Amino acid sequence: MAYKAESFIHDLDKVAKARQEFSGYLSAIADTLTEAEQVGETASGKLGLESTVDDLELVSRNLGEGVFRLLVLGDMKRGKSTFLNALIGENVLPTDVNPCTAVLTVLGYGQDKRVTVQFKEDREPEPLDFDTFKQRYTIPPEEAKKLQEEGTSAFPNVAYAEVQYPLTLLEKGVQIIDSPGLNDTEQRNQLTLGYINNCHAILFVLSATQPFTLGEQRYLENYIKDRGLSVFFLINHWDEIQNRLIDPEDLTALHEAEDRVRQVFRTNLTPYCQVEGEDRYDDRVFEISSLNALRQRLRSGSLEGTGFSEFIKALNHFLTK
Ligand SMILES: Nc1nc2c(ncn2[C@@H]2O[C@H](COP(=O)(O)OP(=O)(O)OP(=O)(O)O)[C@@H](O)[C@H]2O)c(=O)[nH]1
Ligand SMILES: [Mg+2]
Q1: Are residues 162 and 310 in the same domain?
Q2: Among the bound ligands, the one closest to the CA of 83
Q3: Alpha-carbon torsion angle 178, 182, 186, 189, nearest 10
Q4: What is the tens place of the pLDDT at every residue in 41-98?
Q5: Are 74 and 168 contained in the same domain?
Q6: What is the pLDDT of residues 155-199, one digit of tens each?
Q7: Smallest Cα–Cα separation from 74: which of 229, 236, 186?
Q8: Which of the residues 93, 100, 108, 118 could staple to 81 if both were Cys, CB 3.0 to 4.6 A apart?
Q9: Do 258 and 217 sit in the same domain of this protein?
Q10: Whose CA is nearest to atom 7 of ligand 1?
């Protein structure tokens, strides 16, 4: 049976409550230790527990915050923004053949739909409507390619854009970060990389029609491998395998073509799917079509039969375990 988005939200709710409770306990322990240190100062002497108290307070704050951060990474035009729109069920993020995402975009909960651009330097945040945001902070692919080669950013003074949206998934504490297409140069990736350790999971979007390019290999090798990160791989554009056949109705040819693509990814992604010495490929790699999923979601609200259900189930298991 397909896993329902409502079950995911229900499970997140339970975990958020448990986290809140645990956060309260930790905070109480931190208070007790602080008090003990204050008493000790005038009596038998301090125990030097300041850093323990700081750690407890930090963990307590993070847990109490109840945020699950997901970072979406991938090369240009893999369908990152389309995937996110399908996941949240609305056309929130700019996606197109043409303009490219040019700034890191943090999607979180807000009662009113709004976008605010946050700057690196001492400059007031810029509130924008969605259309202006799409026009002002996306760039044409030629420019994106040129900037990629130069290793520079289109908007070097922008820290990130904050998109607030009244969606249940976001209200339950899921925060999703859309990123501009990846690049080999450390400098341009710095902002995105800065986010990697702050996230609970990385959703790495690949394309079935360009299986595992050199750029992707290099990126995974340099920034993801052996860093203890939890990575889900989404092999997007799966529908295009069929479209590219001479006879799209030839099912034998379709299965053969799909198996060839599957094999390339299986060989290359297996090293990234080892968890505590165990091969977790099937829980980490998913074949999807974000475009079809988005169309279906906008039409009927459901993601059934799109490959998304399996992914959401695995993500839920990971986030709530
Ligand atoms: N056929 C097909 N097209 C897709 C799929 N996912 C995305 N697209 C199309 O691919 C193009 C690029 O999609 P985006 O979501 O903008 O890609 P992106 O990775 O966010 O691109 P950048 O932000 O520029 O890096 C759009 O025209 C989408 O409609 C898919 O699964 N199948
Ligand atoms: Mg994008």
Answers
A1: yes
A2: 1
A3: -20
A4: 777 666 666 766 776 666 566 556 677 888 999 988 899 999 988 988 888 887 776 6
A5: yes
A6: 888 888 999 988 877 887 888 998 887 765 555 566 667 777 778
A7: 236
A8: 93
A9: yes
A10: 79
